[in-house]
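Re: the request from the purification team.
They wanted to know what the chain is likely to look like in 3D before they choose a buffer screen. I agreed to run a prediction and write the result into the notebook, where they can find it.
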Amino acid sequence: MAGRVERTAIGIDLGTTYSCVAAWFDKHNRVEIIPNQQGNKITPSCVAWDGMQMLVGEAAKNQITRNPKNTVYGKLL
């Protein structure tokens, strides 16, 4: 008899305000939320252009008050 195949499934919740990514691991028999680069389990659904580079998530949201015309966020602050 063949061994059990372990599977992983990835889910992405693209929300209008916040987004998150989670994975199902057969090995652990549970879903785990994958933290972003700042260690947070949710990421602002926000993108911005600062004139030199594209910003996403926390970086984009943090500069929204000084660059509102080049920032897209899911709700009004």
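For the purification team: The radius of gyration is 17 Å.
Please add any questions underneath this entry.
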